[in-house]
Design a protein that fits this description.
Layout: H1 2-7, H2 9-29, H3 34-48, H4 53-57, H5 67-95, H6 98-110, H7 115-126, H8 132-150, H9 155-171, H10 176-184, H11 189-218, H12 244-267, H13 273-281, H14 284-300, H15 307-318, H16 321-340, H17 343-351, H18 358-373, H19 376-387, H20 398-411, H21 421-429, H22 434-460
Helix pairs in contact: 2-3, 2-17, 3-16, 5-8, 5-14, 5-15, 5-16, 6-7, 6-8, 7-8, 7-9, 7-11, 8-9, 8-21, 9-11, 9-22, 10-19, 10-20, 11-20, 11-22, 12-13, 12-14, 16-21, 17-18, 18-19, 18-20, 19-20, 20-22, 21-22
């Protein structure tokens, strides 16, 4: 029995399913803190898979190469500084009235009834130059303010934003997945952009506008007290509102810097001094640090806040970040354990011999890898490596290759659940309980995936 669980594809899938079921049971029924439940489920799955103890937790002398430290560190090394800076930037924007100004203008432009559309367009536009998680941390204050002002469910505002960020992250360069697919499948970046837009925008509309509006009206979730600035600056009402142009500039600075570094890397020769400057300033941590310092100076100190008030604001806004980071890190560990069991590779090998049409095969393999191990980027790169050799006979045009790439990208975002770090960022950052996150965010990602693939499949019949 143990040999079957550890070696056979069906056994590995069973073990993964049992681990996920245990995790959901601990969180939803037993109500154990998600951080502890993720850690416990990951350890039990690792032991059940027969992984060596040294591989799981390391040795008494060092654990650097272990799944425990590697799983935590792999994701926290990327998001910790960004989460902290993004949270502080959001708190200053909200406490100074800047987020209120920008949200009111957006709502005025689109109307209260079209507020979800305004949020979705923000995610779609801002999601092009920035990573998914960075977009959440920078734009989340707009969601908090809009939901508090209207008294409506936070889902009406956060889901359209998330849909826009997710679509651009999955389908469009300069994000790592589409860029990797361009190299793996030997397809021109321009065709990736064209087909990514052609498939991503309908997916965003169906998931981010239609579904989000439907579920947001049926499931009311208020903005939790612990998110946003809250009571960080009660005297903000006595201060004049900051100009819209200043607020937009501060929000736009990190986006412009990151975009400059991205496209500078494509256009400038390696080793050039200009590229070095752009790369340094466009690092997400550096770009957000610049934005935070400008926000503190221009929106807080120069508009009447004292240094003591700013210090208190920082302390209050960062207080909830500790548990969020623990949950995200534990999610990274759980995903790393599932990847280490080999379930993804075994499943991909089985599916590649199924005799499906190429675009369908690419989508199914990507979906399976995504569900099994949680990482969209891993699903994309692995599927591209499997499918790439099947495309070398020259019978596929550039548009057809781009549609295969879109199919792989669409599969990589399906059914985000408890082994995905993004699932926990969404749940913790917007204060959505795990059960409701599965009903909303997981379903939203699945809709984006299915619609994106459906459009790619239809286009493949005519190009």
């Amino acid at each position: 029995m143990l040999e079957w669980l550890r070696q056979d594809t069906a056994g590995l899938l069973t073990l993964s399913a049992l681990g996920i079921a245990l995790l959901l049971f601990l969180i939803i029924k037993v109500r154990i803190e998600p951080f502890i439940a993720l850690l416990l489920a990951g350890l039990l799955v690792a032991l059940g898979a027969g992984l060596p103890v040294e591989r799981i937790v390391g040795s008494a002398q060092s654990g650097k190469e272990s799944l425990l430290e590697g799983g935590f560190g792999g994701i926290l090394g990327h998001v910790t500084v960004i989460i902290g800076l993004g949270t502080l930037l959001g708190a200053v924007l909200e406490a100074s009235g800047g987020a209120e100004v920008l949200t009111r203008r957006l709502l005025h432009a689109f109307g209260e009834r079209r507020a979800p559309l305004a949020m979705g367009l923000s995610g779609l536009v801002f999601g092009i130059p920035v990573f998914f998680d960075i977009g959440i941390f920078v734009l989340a204050p707009l969601v908090y303010v809009a939901a508090r002002r209207s008294g409506r469910s936070i889902l009406l505002f956060c889901l359209p934003l998330l849909a826009g960020l997710s679509v651009t992250h999955a389908f469009l360069p300069p994000h790592p997945g589409p860029v990797a697919l361009a190299g793996l499948l030997k397809v021109d970046m321009g065709w990736i952009i064209i087909m990514g837009l052609a498939c991503g925008i309908p997916a965003w509309f169906v998931g981010g506008v239609l579904f989000s509006s439907w579920i947001g009206r049926r499931l009311h979730l208020p903005v939790p007290e612990e998110v946003g600035a809250g009571d960080a600056a009660p005297a903000a009402e006595d201060r004049p509102e900051p100009p819209l142009a200043l607020v937009a500039t501060i929000i736009g600075i990190p986006l412009v810097l990151i975009l400059g570094a991205t496209f500078g890397g494509m256009a400038l020769p390696k080793g050039s001094a200009v590229l070095g400057v752009l790369t340094f300033l466009g690092s997400p941590a550096v770009a957000l640090t610049i934005a935070v310092l400008l926000a503190i100076w221009l929106l807080a100190l120069r508009r009447g806040m004292t240094t003591a008030e700013v210090s208190g604001l920082a302390a209050r806004s960062l207080r909830p970040v500790g548990m969020l980071l623990l949950v995200v890190g534990a999610g990274g560990f759980f995903g790393a354990v599932l990847a280490a069991t080999g379930v993804g590779k075994a499943l991909a090998g089985t599916l590649s011999s199924a005799g499906l049409p190429l675009i369908v095969l690419a989508y199914v393999i990507s979906c399976a890898l995504r569900v099994a191990q949680g990482s969209a980027t891993v699903a994309i790169v692995t599927t591209g490596g499997i499918v790439g050799p099947l495309l070398t006979d020259g019978q596929y045009t550039q548009p057809q290759l781009a549609l295969v790439a879109v199919a792989i990208a669409a599969g990589s975002i399906i059914a985000s659940h408890v082994n995905d770090g993004g699932f926990w960022i969404v749940s913790r950052y917007f204060g959505i309980p795990v059960k409701e996150t599965l009903r909303t965010w997981t379903v939203l990602e699945t809709i984006l995936s299915v619609v994106g693939f459906a459009v790619a499949g239809l286009l493949s019949l005519v190009v």
